[in-house]
Design goal:
The protein is α+β, with helices and mostly antiparallel strands. Helix content is 30%, strand content 37%. It has a six-stranded antiparallel β-sheet, covered by helices on one side. Strand 4 and strand 5 form a beta hairpin.
């Protein structure tokens, strides 16, 4: 009997989690997840179906001037995720500075006075592709030339 109750409780909880994950997020003002994402992340595209991992993210500011890091779970594999960010960030006006495609891939972009670093790790988050998007102001300090 106890096992049946545990099984039903687990099943109910699982169904609630799935229902929450598949239901479009809207606020009392009628804003969708896409609206909120645009307000928070500005001109930084995120792959379709991706979720933001809130407890691993830190966003300071909003829109096109935010800084910090955003942890993302993408449903695409690491190669598709890499290609998405490489193409879509450039379409959004970001300049690709460097990229490395390996098991743990890295893309570095600049735009105006900001730098964005995207780290992509395959299958790191419950079968999802893990993405860490870090954004910071670009340094205006020129390093000294070696003697």
């Amino acid at each position: 009997m106890k096992n049946l109750i545990r099984l039903l409780s687990t099943l109910t909880l699982s169904l609630m989690v799935v229902a929450c994950a598949t239901t479009p997020l809207t606020t009392a003002d009628g804003e969708t997840f896409q609206d909120i994402q645009t307000k928070l992340l500005g001109d930084m595209p995120i792959p379709g179906g991706a979720v933001i991992i809130h407890d691993k993210s830190l966003i300071l500011g909003s829109g096109d001037t935010w800084a910090g890091r955003v942890a993302i779970g993408a449903v695409q594999n690491s190669t598709e995720t890499f290609t998405f960010f490489r193409e879509q960030f450039q379409k959004a006006g970001w300049t690709l500075v460097s990229s490395t495609k390996t098991k743990n891939s890295i893309l570095v972009f600049i735009k105006k006075d900001r730098t964005a670093t995207i780290e992509i790790e395959d299958g790191s988050m419950l079968g999802k592709t893990g993405v860490m998007l870090t954004v910071a102001p670009r340094s205006s300090v020129t390093p000294p030339v070696g003697k």
